[in-house]
Amino acid sequence: MEISAGKIGRLGVIAAMAIWSLTLVTAPMDDVGGSFLHMINLVFHEAGHIIFSPFGRFMTILGGSLMQVLIPIVCALNLYFQNEDRFGAALCAWWAGENLLDLAPYINDARALNLILLGGPANAVEGHDWEAILTSLGCLHLDHTLANAAHFAGASIMWAALVWASVARTGSQE
To answer: Is residue 105 a contact partner of residue 31, using CB atoms and an 8 Å limit?
Structure first.
């Protein structure tokens, strides 16, 4: 049975992403920005604040994190349904999981306010999203629990997406 160059390429991408996933998943949670994707994710995060601003203060604040996770989901759905590209959709699902990993340190910092944000140190500027979100919900004490849940969900999605990618077919293969 002959293996196509495309299949070999996809397996190479999956192997590289599995190694990268292991690095990201096992990194200390306070290692914000440990991936070059952090800066890409940050663009969507900041845009989310603007896009969700018509829906009130709470949604403006939540909109950053929400948009950060929604963009890769929308990309995955588009690749899956419009292009019938299950491999591409799986990689976008991986990206959605990576975004949850990227958000976990931010959620975890809601009480401590130790992160350096775009405006400066979190404890010196107003505008820590997750402090505001969790405070308004009366759940600030759950910051570490929610951060761990986001990290676990993100890691699980990333690994599941890589499994999906390894068995996925593109539209042209079906």
So the answer is: yes
Q: Where are the domains of the chain?
A: 72-169
Angle at CA of residue 72, ends 98 and 138, nearest 5°: 65
Cα angle vertex 150, ends 106, 99, to 5°? 70
How do residues 31-65 score in pLDDT, each as one tens digit?
Answer: 756 788 999 999 999 999 999 999 999 999 999 99
pLDDT digits (tens, 9 = 90+) for 72-84: 999 999 999 999 9
- 87 close to 165: Cβ distance less than 8 angstroms: yes
Burial, 36: exposed, middle or buried (Cβ in 10 Å; 0-12, 13-18, 19+)? Answer: exposed
Question: Do residues 95 and 40 touch, judged by C-beta distance below 8 A?
Answer: no
What is the pTM assigned to this prediction? 0.91
Radius of gyration of the chain (CA): 18
Whether the pLDDT of residue 173 is over 90: the answer is: no
Q: Is 61 exposed, middle or buried (0-12, 13-18, 19+ CB in 10 A)?
A: buried
Q: What are the structure tokens assigned to 31, written together?
A: 């290692």
